[in-house]
Amino acid sequence: MMAEAWRLILLLIPLIAGGISIYFSFRLMKRYRISFTSSFFYYMVFLYIFGTYSLAGAGILEHLLIRMEIDQKVIHSASLYAIFLGIPFLALAKFMFLRSIVEFFQKKPSISFTIIYFLCLTTAFVLYGIYMVRLTRFELGAYQELIQIQRWAFFVFILGIYLSAYFYILFTSAKLSDLPAKRHIRIFGSCYLAFMVLTLTSLALTGYHSIFQQVFLLVFLSWHLIPILFLNVYLNKYQEPERMLPDDFETSLLAFAEEHDISKRESEVVRLICRGLSNQEISETLFISLQTVKDHTHRIFVKTGVRNRVQLSNMIR
After folding, report:
1. Tens of pLDDT, residues 114-169
2. Is 106 helix (H, G, I), strand (E, B) or coil?
3. Which of 62, 185, 250, 284 is the most exposed place for a label (fewest CB within 10 A)?
4. Comparing C-alpha atoms, which of 182, 153, 30 is closest to residue 91?
5. 170 vs 211, which has greater pLDDT?
6. Is the dihedral of CA 282, 284, 286, 290 positive or negative?
7. CB 218 within 8 A of CB 199
8. In angstroms, rounded to a whole number, what is the distance separating the alpha carbons of residues 84 and 247?
């Protein structure tokens, strides 16, 4: 009983830590309404679903079935299918992670990349599902074979995702002139490079001792607290949070537009500027090109005689 209690505690720690990570990433998303924090939040959510349902859930299910003295073949198949059904959440999580990295540089993943990514993973998922279904008898050898396939597929997938993200950060950040931003995004990428190393190392050692299964789950769900706290420090220092507009803002904006001959579209741009949105976010919100946003902003500055966004906001307030 004591051993089971400790096993449950060790299982709950990463689950709680993962929940805390989601909470902090949600706060970042609400405080800084930028596409990067939004994608990162959904990355955390999908990863947590996979971790709790497929990894922790499969272990709990196997433990319960063993205590109920269910046939060993049923236990093996139930555990394998629990992991299998969580794979789509893992695929979504990693896509949102790559998307968040790209959006940090105010870009978006190309349509071709998105199509190829999901097409390849969907094909692999379906083929693996067919292979599992055809194995109607889970003898020990077949079970171990499937475990090895899952483990190696996970190993290669995680290695490819985080190495790709890290090298993308290195090459893209080299073009940044803002040295603090360059340093922070590279540290953020290094955090996930370390996450990859620790995850894969603990996964490789799971066959030697059961404690490494707990270490793997702990790293997989708990590590994100480190980059999230670092990200919070960075955004607090370099990113202005979205501002709440006062109740009389629309009245002030209307008078401001009439006084300075601001068009309706330019007023929409002014409203979003006062909310603290970047040019890229204004472009996405109004469904116009980034250059059009810059042109509108330039004309607004010329008409009002201001030099920056802060002066513009102060004029209206």
Report:
1. 999 999 999 988 888 887 776 655 555 566 777 777 788 889 999 999 999 999 99
2. coil
3. 250
4. 153
5. 170
6. positive
7. no
8. 51
In Å, what is the CA distance from 159 to each residue of 21, 48, 93?
Answer: 22, 19, 14
What is 249-316's CATH topology? Arc Repressor Mutant, subunit A (1.10.10)
Query: What is the distance between the alpha carbons of residues 311 and 317, in angstroms, rounded to a whole number?
Result: 10
Position 6, amino acid: W
CATH 1.20.1070 for domain 2-238? yes
Neighbours of 248 (CB within 10 A): 9
- Which residue type, as a one-letter code, is found at position 251? T
Q: Is the pLDDT of residue 45 over 90?
A: yes
Phi, psi of 175 (to 5 degrees): -85, -10
| More confident site: 297 or 240 | 297
List the end-to-end C-alpha distance of the chain, in Å, as a whole number: 65
How far out from the chain centre does Cα 302 lie? 40
State residue 244's pLDDT score.
60
| DSSP H or E segment with residue 191 | helix 179-204
Rounded Cα–Cα distance for residues 189 and 170 (Å): 8
What does the domain layout of the chain look like in residue ranges?
Answer: 2-238, 249-316
Whether residue 253 contacts residue 316, with contact meaning beta carbons closer than 8 Å, is answered with yes
Q: Which two tokens stand for residue 37?
A: 């924090």
- Residues 6 or more apart from 269 whose CB is under 8 A from it? 282, 286, 293, 296, 297, 300
